[in-house]
Amino acid sequence: MREGYYSDKYFVRAREILLADHRAASVTMQVFGKSQAYLGGMDEAIAILKLCSDDWSALTVRALYDGELIEPWETVLTIEGPYEMFAHLETLYLGVLARRTRVGTNTRLVVDAAHPKTVMFFPARHDHWLVQTGDGYAAHIAGAIGVSTDAQASWWGSTGIGTVPHALIAAYDGDTVLATKKFAEYIDPTVQIITLVDYDNDCVRTSLDVARAMDGRLWAVRLDTSENLVDSSIIPQMGTFRPTGVNPQLVWNVRRALDEAGFPEVQIVVSGGFTVEKIRAFEEAGVPVDSYGIGSSLFSGRFDFTADIVMVNGTPQSKAGRRVIANPRLERVE
Prior knowledge:
By secondary structure, the protein is α/β, with parallel strands linked by helices. It is 34% helix and 18% strand. The chain has helices at 9-20, 42-52, 90-114, 132-142, 150-153, 166-171, 176-186, 203-214, 248-260, 276-284; strands at 26-33, 37-38, 60-63, 69-70, 75-82, 118-121, 146-147, 193-196, 218-223, 267-271, 291-294, 305-312, 315-316, 331-332. Helix 3 (90-114) runs parallel beside helix 10 and helix 8 (203-214) runs parallel beside helix 9. It is elongated and about 80 Å long. The two termini are 21 Å apart.
């Protein structure tokens, strides 16, 4: 990072020119986003400036906090000091702000839509593994109660959570009950047991079979029916609603079956194609979901940030259309 290896080449070359020409340019760099969002990545951006600028003590940095609601064009970060000391870092701090704000904002929106239900952050498989640590932290700040990998949980000292997966069920010849028993036998007893129950496309029967076999150890069942399938319990009820995937009627069927069989304590987790809109629809309809597992939708959208020099050597100086936009919410970074 210090050498500009990850930076747009034009910033690296601009720095080289200023140093070679002994050009003193004390600037105010101003950073803003173009969308209403929940800010993410600021801690990372500041760490990059601290560790990779030529002299952190020569810079005056003011910033908002991760998790704060920001408005379009609101200044979220200012950097004052010799431009050549941090010119090569613009690509990096803008990139982390864009990435983490996108993940944090999307997570916050689904957390708000699901409230007071909980949200589990499950999109690791939908992107490169290198983004996991910061993405997990952004989701944590936004209110997700759990993440799926240890890397995602590492920045606040936790670990990943998960379910009895389809792959383990397949390894036990498609026997969900046996796979769940083996999971309970070999996994730390403090781990909450959540079992996927759609392997045979019969969530009601499988939920009951697992609950009976686990004798009080089952914490939750997870419904993850494919959007192209109709669960067995839904077939007799078809005709007045969209029957595919995880739909409200399927959740009600499982909830009623568990309650009637004496398992009201077993919770229901749903996953598979859930978005803010789908969660809101479920909540408005009072569907008895306890937790939502959210995946790829948390990586959608764009939340770009822009950095502009707006002052040079104490004098206003910027490209057309840009100007100093003071923000009293900014706080000095030590």
